[in-house]
Write a structure and sequence with these properties.
The chain is of the alpha/beta class and about 140 residues long. It has 3 helices and 6 strands, in the order E-H-E-E-H-E-E-E-H. It has one domain: 2-Layer Sandwich (Macrophage Migration Inhibitory Factor). Pfam families: Tautomerase (PF01361). Its EC number is 5.3.2.6.
Length: about 140
C-alpha cells in the first residue's frame, strides 16, 4: 500500500498539439522522478495527465505569445507533507525541466502545487487521512 501523502496527480497543459509522443513520455518520466527526488512522492504511484491544446488558444497578456510553447503545470499533493523550501525548489526545478523539454517558453509559465486536505483527497477509494491512520509511521 502506498504511504500517506505519496501519490500526486499531475496535469500538464501544453499549447502545442504536435508535441511528439517521446517528448510527452520523457516529460511524464521526468516529472515523476522530480516529484520523487524533490518532494518524496512515490514514482510508481504518480499519475501524469498531459493535455495538448492548440497554440491559438493560449494567451499571455491578452495576446498569443510570439514565440515559445505555453505550459501550465498543476500538481495535487496532500497538505502538510512538504516544507516551503521543498515546494519552492520543486517549482524552480519543474520550470527548468519544462524549458529543457519544450524549448523556448513564453514569459508566463505557471507551476502550481495544490495542497489538498487529506480528508478530501484520496487514492483507490481511501482518503489520505484514513491512509495515514492505517500506517501512521508511513507518513512523509
Amino acid at each position: 500500500m502506498p504511504k500517506f501523502g505519496c501519490m500526486p496527480f499531475v496535469r500538464l497543459t501544453i499549447a502545442d498539439p504536435d508535441i511528439a509522443v517521446d517528448v510527452r513520455s520523457a516529460l511524464a518520466r521526468d516529472l515523476s522522478a522530480l516529484l520523487e527526488s524533490g518532494l518524496g512522492k512515490e514514482y510508481e504511484h504518480t499519475v501524469v495527465h498531459i493535455d495538448l491544446v492548440p497554440a491559438d488558444r493560449w494567451y499571455v497578456a491578452g495576446v498569443h505569445p510570439g514565440e515559445g510553447t505555453g505550459a501550465h503545470l498543476e500538481v495535487s499533493i496532500t497538505a502538510g507533507t512538504n516544507t516551503p523550501e521543498e515546494k519552492a525548489a520543486f517549482i524552480s526545478d519543474a520550470h527548468e525541466l519544462l524549458g529543457r523539454r519544450l524549448g523556448v517558453l513564453p514569459a508566463a509559465v505557471y507551476v502550481a502545487l495544490y495542497e489538498l486536505d487529506g480528508r478530501s483527497y484520496g487514492y483507490n477509494g481511501i482518503t489520505q487521512a484514513a491512509r495515514k491512520n492505517l500506517d501512521p509511521a508511513g507518513s512523509d
